[in-house]
Amino acid sequence: MMTLHTLGDDGLLRLIAAGNQEAFLTLYRRHQGAIYRFALHMSGNPSVAEEVTQEVFMVLIRHPQQYDAGRGSLAAFLYGVARNHVLRGIEQDRRYLPPAEQEEGDGEPGVWDAWSNGIEDPLADLVRAEAIERVRQGVLALPAAYREVVVLCDLQELDYAEAARVLGCPVGTVRSRLHRGRTLLMEKLRAMQRGEGSFNGIRTAKNGLWL
Length: 211
Fold this sequence. Notes:
Radius of gyration: 18 Å
CATH architecture of the largest domain: Orthogonal Bundle
Number of helices: 9
Distance between the termini: 46 Å
Oligomer: single chain
């Protein structure tokens, strides 16, 4: 039996266009966590991430015609809208600059939390938490053009083609920016290591990037 949860995004969008609120809630729950995490990794600010996430879905409600299924998935469209809001904020609002200390807030857990799951030894947990925080700050310190490809490909686990659709650039550009972004991130983490002592290496779930 077909239910809202088994419908694809396009099917849910058709129901949303007909005024079905449950269809919108289903679509929101399906994509909210990923959009929130993207905005959080880009901005470093839970409040900003929540604001961006709300704006993204308001765009979907108010201007559904902006999404063209022929140009890519709905997820790519939502990431693209979120990216535009975050980049606009980086230019206009210092809230989007990396903070000295930041908490995750009420959003769904991201890859940082996944890396630290299952550690029972308190000391090991502390060491891993410190390493994760350094990675977080290292990503936030990247220039926006490199930060976004690292977040999309290494943290959100989009493939190159999907990331290229989000960014509106060729796949080759994604590859080159990702290579440069990873190099810059490694340099920043090594600098932190030299200044603060050694830390455990971690690896992204999909791309095998050791940090």
